[in-house]
Amino acid sequence: MTISVGLASANGFLTPAEAAGLGIPLQILSKKEATTLRSFGEAIVPGSDKEGLVHFIDNQLAQDPNDCMLLLKYFQIRPPYIDFYRSGCIALFKYCQAHYGQEFEYLSKAEKDEVIKALIRGRTEGWQGPPAFLFYMFVRSDAVDVVYGTPEGFEKLDIPYMAHILPPGGMAT
To answer: What is the pTM (predicted TM-score) of this model?
Structure first.
């Protein structure tokens, strides 16, 4: 999985992890949204931060909605897709403040697990945003994509890579 980014005067293709490692500026997400998504995604799928979850989401949000690879596109959620992520981040922020007195990224592992279980079960009293389970499901999908949706990710799972969508230029042999 690669994302297209502008590097100086030349265009290049980087993986989300490479873009994150190089500190490529985000195009769409605010710093707070990025911090929330980074922490939330890492709590759901460990390794997603290292693999560039935030850069992947940001890059996809910057695409023409017809070219976007985010799962929410297929659930008839209307663009601009940033509205879904932004309202989900705000709802998560407010929920954690109301129930724990702090933001998600500052919660203990046990508290993060409690929040995630509440989102999955729909037991999110006071949640004001997109349906809590959908927010969890879409961020989880994005995190799984960056961690396991590559040949290296398949290798981590010890299964042969079989792309369902060939990358540009086909498969390297």
So the answer is: 0.87
Looking at the domain assignment, is residue 54 inside a domain?
yes
By C-alpha distance, which of 42, 9, 10 is closest to 20? 42
Residue 28 included in any domain:
yes
Domain count, the chain: 1
Contact between residue 37 and residue 109 where contact means Cβ atoms under 8 Å apart: no
Q: What is the mean pLDDT of each run of 10 residues along the chain (173 residues)?
A: 49 86 96 98 97 97 93 92 98 97 98 98 94 97 93 85 67 54
Residue 16: Cβ within 10 Å count: 28
Amino acid identity of residue 82, one-letter, is I
The two structure tokens encoding residue 78: 């209307």
Strands 10-14 and 3-7: antiparallel
- Is residue 92 in some structural domain? yes
